[in-house]
Write a structure and sequence with these properties.
Elements: H1 2-17, H2 23-31, H3 36-42, H4 51-88, H5 107-121, E1 125-126, E2 132-134, H6 135-138, E3 158-160, E4 163-165, H7 171-179, E5 184-193, E6 205-215, H8 220-235, E7 241-248, E8 251-260, E9 277-286, H9 288-293, E10 302-309, H10 310-318, H11 331-334
Parallel strand pairs: 1-5
Antiparallel strand pairs: 2-4, 3-4, 5-6, 6-10, 7-8, 8-9, 9-10
Bound molecules: 3,4-dihydroxyphenylalanine (DAH).
3,4-dihydroxyphenylalanine is lined by residues 168, 170, 210, 248, 251, 282-284, 305-307.
C-alpha cells in the first residue's frame, strides 16, 4: 500500500508539472471522491492496527503534497497568464496620438457672420423670417403683383398657389415693418431658393443678407455712407463704391452697387474679369407703396434697403471660382478657410 501511495504521489506530481496540465481534472482524478487516493484510503480497513496509522499518515502527507503542488502550479499559471496579458496589452504611451480634427465654421457661415458683425457694429439688429413664405410677402407686398415680369427672374418652388420657398430675403422687410414701428435698423440673413439649374454660379439654394433702415429723414446719402463703411470694413480701407442706376420694384430710386476690385485695386484682373469693379448688392430707397403696404406713412418716414448674395461675396472674397464647391462638403476644400 505504501508503494501504491508513493506511485500516486509521483504520478500526480508529474501530471501537475506537465505542460498544459488541467489542474482541476488532476485534482478530481487523485483527490476527488472517486479519486485514486480516496480509493486507497477506503482499503485501509484491511490493514492491521499497527499499520493503519502509519499508512494513514503517509496518505495524509501525499494528499498535502499533491494539494500544495496544485496550489503552487495554479499560482504559477495565473502569474504566467498575467505576464502574457501585460505583454499583449502593453500601451506605448510614447507613441504620438492621432491628430484630432476639430470642426470649423463653413466659409459661407464665416462670411455671413463677418457681414453680421459689421452691421451690428453700426447699430443694426438681426431679424429672421420663414423660408416657406406667402406669395404676399415674397412678391405682392414688395410691389411685385401677379404677372409682373420681375417674377420671371425669381421663379421658385411652390408649395401651393400662394405659398412658396422665398426667392429673396426682402419679405423680411415687410414682416419687420408690420411688427415694428420706425426707427428700424435690421439686417436679415438667410437661405433663399430659385428654380435655377446648378452650375458654377447658380444654385437652387443660396444665401442673402437683407438690410433695412426706416426713420424720419433717411436719404440716399445714409445708404451710401453705411454701405461704404460696410465695404471698407469687409474689403479694405482703399475700397471705392460705384452706384449704378437699376430697377427693383420695391425701391425707388434703385441702384446696383459695385466695389473696386480688392485684388487689383481697380486695374483689372482675373477676379474682377478685367472690369476693375465687382458687383456686390442691390439697393435703393424703400418704395412708398411698400411703406404704405406695411402701415408706415411714406409722407412721414423714408428708408433704404439693400440685399446681397453671401455666396457671391464669399467667392470673390476667397477667390473661389465654382459655387458647387461650397455645397459638396469636401473637407479638403473646406479646411482651407
Ligand atoms: N431682393 C433682391 C434680389 O434678390 C436684392 C435687393 C435689391 C434687395 C434691392 C433689396 C434692395 O433690399 O433694396 O435680387
Amino acid at each position: 500500500m505504501k508503494e501504491k501511495l508513493q506511485k500516486i504521489k509521483a504520478d500526480a506530481l508529474a501530471a501537475i508539472n506537465s505542460d498544459n496540465a488541467d489542474l482541476e481534472q488532476i485534482r478530481i482524478q487523485y483527490l476527488g471522491k472517486k479519486g485514486e487516493l480516496t480509493s486507497v484510503l477506503r482499503g485501509m480497513g484491511a490493514l492491521s492496527a499497527e499499520e493503519r496509522p502509519v499508512v494513514g499518515q503517509i496518505a495524509n502527507e501525499v494528499r498535502a503534497e499533491i494539494e500544495s503542488a496544485l496550489k503552487v502550479k495554479a499560482e504559477a499559471k495565473k502569474d504566467q497568464e498575467l505576464q502574457k496579458r501585460l505583454i499583449s496589452e502593453k500601451i506605448d504611451v510614447t507613441l504620438p496620438s492621432k491628430a484630432a480634427t476639430p470642426g470649423k465654421l463653413h466659409p459661407l457661415v464665416q462670411v455671413q457672420r463677418t457681414i453680421e458683425d459689421i452691421f451690428i457694429g453700426m447699430g443694426f439688429s438681426i431679424a429672421e423670417g420663414p423660408e416657406v413664405e406667402y406669395d404676399y410677402y415674397n412678391f405682392q407686398a414688395l410691389n411685385i403683383p401677379e404677372n409682373h415680369p420681375a417674377r420671371d427672374t425669381q421663379d421658385t418652388f411652390y408649395i401651393t398657389d400662394n405659398i412658396l420657398l422665398r426667392s429673396q430675403t426682402s419679405p423680411v422687410q415687410v414682416r419687420t415693418m408690420e411688427h415694428q414701428k420706425p426707427p428700424i435698423r435690421v439686417i436679415s440673413p438667410g437661405r433663399v431658393y430659385r428654380s435655377d439649374a446648378v452650375d458654377a454660379t447658380h444654385s437652387p439654394l443660396f444665401h442673402q443678407v437683407e438690410g433695412l433702415v426706416v426713420d424720419k429723414g433717411i436719404t440716399m446719402g445714409d445708404l451710401k455712407g453705411m454701405l461704404e463703411t460696410f465695404a471698407k470694413t469687409l474689403f479694405g480701407n482703399d475700397t471705392r463704391l460705384r452706384f449704378r442706376p437699376h430697377h427693383f420694384p420695391f425701391t425707388e430710386p434703385s441702384a446696383e452697387v459695385d466695389v473696386s476690385c480688392f485684388v487689383c485695386g481697380g486695374k483689372g484682373c482675373r477676379v474682377c474679369k478685367n472690369e476693375g469693379w465687382i458687383e456686390i448688392l442691390g439697393s435703393g430707397m424703400v418704395h412708398p407703396f411698400v411703406l404704405s403696404n406695411c402701415g408706415i406713412d411714406p409722407e412721414e418716414y423714408s428708408g433704404f434697403a439693400f440685399g446681397m448674395g453671401v455666396e457671391r461675396i464669399a467667392m470673390k472674397y476667397y477667390g473661389i471660382d465654382d459655387m458647387r464647391l461650397l455645397y459638396e462638403n469636401d473637407t479638403r476644400f473646406l479646411e482651407q478657410f
